[in-house]
Amino acid sequence: MLNSIQHDVVFNSPGNTIVSASPGSGKTRTLVARAQYKLDSLPHRKCIGLITYTNAGADEIAARLITQQQSDVFIGTIHRFCLEFILKPFGWIYKYSKPKVISYDELMEFIELNHDLDLGNSPLDELNKIKKTLDGELDQSVSLYNNLSLSYVAEIFYAFLKEKRAIDFNEILFRSYKVVSENDFVVNSLANKFYEIAVDEFQDTNIFQYEILKTINTRQICTFFLVGDEKQKIYRFAGAIDNAFIKASQDFETEVRVLKHTYRSTNNIVNAYSALFPNHPVLSNESKYNKENFPLIIKQTTNDNHSQTILSCVDQFVKNKCELSEIAILSTSWIDAINVSRALRHKYRVVGLGALPHRSNNTSTFALLRGISRFNYSTSMRNLRIVKRNIDLHLLENNLVLNEREFTQATNTIISKILALDKSVDLICGITSLKEIFDDVFRINHCAFEEIIGLIDVAESSLWTLDKYLETVSGVAGITSNTIHQAKGLEFDLVILNNVNEGRIPYQAWNAAERRREPLEPENEADGRTLFYVGVSRAKAALVILHNWAPSLFLQSVRGK
Fold first, then answer.
1. Residue 21 annotated as binding?
2. Which of 308, 336, 402, 543 could staple 406 via S-S, CB 3.0–4.6 A?
3. For ATP, which residues are the binding ones (predicted)?
4. Is 472 labelled as part of a ligand binding site?
5. Strand spans (E) along 229-370
6. Residue 359 has pLDDT above 80, yes or no
7. 541 labeled binding residue
């Protein structure tokens, strides 16, 4: 059921539409309703494009949308959109070879080969900083960990990509922008193919994505439906442009519509996150929790009692009959999230960072395994659609092609074979069996499983069976421990925000020589405000904020709410 504003933007906005959606205001519901409305009146030989920020976001939308034919709608990230509709059909213009996306395993190989570079604790994030500007020059506006020479590292990395005959995600966007910006017939083709292109999480759009969409819009053939919230822009470090909604309002020639009802949280939580922005829209709270008066809990902890405080909070939640899947502990860093998981998983099932006996694996192989595990433990058409989407993505990233019959056979075979496994076996044996199934179904070597086996501590592996592993991978019925960034778009009954400390949120560099923090940069303050806003607004019923002896400056705004 849509409210009046949602109904108006879905059914009564025939041209370009921009929607600003505060937390819990029904953004995804509105986006899906609009897509469904456009699908129901889809002209012959046209399709709908739904561009999401993450594959998880694409899964969520795909699970809700009813389509007659898969070819009627594209749902995926901007990188997949560019591969499928720009580089593969038009890359020949610049003699780009068939695009092969650098794999997670190859990126890890680069890091191991160049360990002397010292890319810090988040080497993949550092490599993601290596990107080009619109004119094709190396973007020098970023700095690498430990003040490494950006030009030097980029030279080594680009040589590695050339050796592997592969491109990374940043190069996908640059090449796609070049193809679109320099070839009118490509723009015409894209504009005529799509009836409407919708973009979720529009506030995190980067300059390449923005310019590609803006160029398609110049043809005034297909329409655009842009949805997001400037107050939740937490990916500036990944290239999100400033003032995306103001720019789009001018370039796409339409006003910004604001959703003014929220359906998620208690009034105390709504008031807390609203207080972070002086011009925050006044929201009408239609949540089922709007009559509840649970106070926000703000606690100071020490190094000695921090983990025990988190465990005690969780114990109290569970004692009050809260489902584990409705509890989340969100941190500002992945290291903190992993430490939380390690402190909890001896007593509770945990999902997210640190829940597994090895580090996270960001491959399409592991994403597919997660989807199949979720389907096996929670069988539904929604989860089956997610499995099919992940198979599609796995094929795309590995340059594999299956016809419709082969695709259906691969789907049925991999699900049934994994379901038939003896899940009481030890973990190493079980992962070896998973690799054999994946290799057999797709006829390629899945070295991601070999890497996983190599990362598992021998002592800890004895504590895991394949059943426990797959259930944890599925993310079903466990406490979420993750970063605030990774929790974007999610919601939980009970949320603990971990280590909301000075220097963490907002970020302030530590001057070790003078034993003080550097002055707070305005950009860091703005980024910290949006990150804290996202963290607070994940909570529906109860919110606990933990800090050390030096709390974040943002706690002044939410105390007493």
1. yes
2. 402
3. 21-28
4. no
5. 256-259, 261-262, 284-285, 297-300, 327-331, 350-352
6. no
7. no
- What is the model's pLDDT at position 68? 59
Handedness of CA 280, 285, 287, 293 (dihedral sign): positive
**pLDDT score, position 512:** 83
- Residue whose token pair is 């054999």: 436
What's the sign of the alpha-carbon dihedral 50, 484, 389, 67? negative
Residue 295, marked binder: no
pLDDT-derived band at 454, boundaries 50, 70, 90 = confident
Closest CA to 168 of 135, 131, 141, 143: 131
The amino acid at residue 503 is G
DSSP-assigned states of every residue in 358-377: S----SHHHHHHHHHHHHHH
Q: Give yes or no for residue 99 having a pLDDT over 90.
A: no
pLDDT, average across residues 329-339: 92
Do the annotations mark residue 27 as ligand-binding? yes
pLDDT digits (tens, 9 = 90+) for 164-194: 999 999 999 999 999 999 999 999 999 999 9
Q: What are phi and psi of 245, to 5 degrees?
A: -75, -40
CA dist 365 and 408 (Å) reads 18
What strands lie across the sheet with 539-547, from one edge to the other?
297-300, 539-547, 492-498, 327-331, 479-483, 350-352
Q: Is 433 annotated among the ligand-binding residues?
A: no
Q: Where are the alpha helices (DSSP H) in 139-290?
A: 150-164, 169-182, 184-193, 207-217, 244-251, 267-274
> Over the stretch 383-442, which tens digit does the pLDDT of each residue have?
898 899 899 889 887 878 899 899 999 999 999 999 999 999 999 999 999 999 999 999
15 is an annotated ligand-binding site residue: no
**Composition of the chain by helix, strand, coil, percent to 5:** 50, 15, 35
pTM of the predicted structure, to 2 decimals? 0.88
- Give me the sign of the Cα torsion angle 440, 446, 450, 452: negative
DSSP for residue 213: H
Neighbours of 80 (CB within 10 A): 21
Mean pLDDT of the chain: 92
pLDDT score of 356 more than 90: no
Contact 480, 487 (CB under 8 A): yes
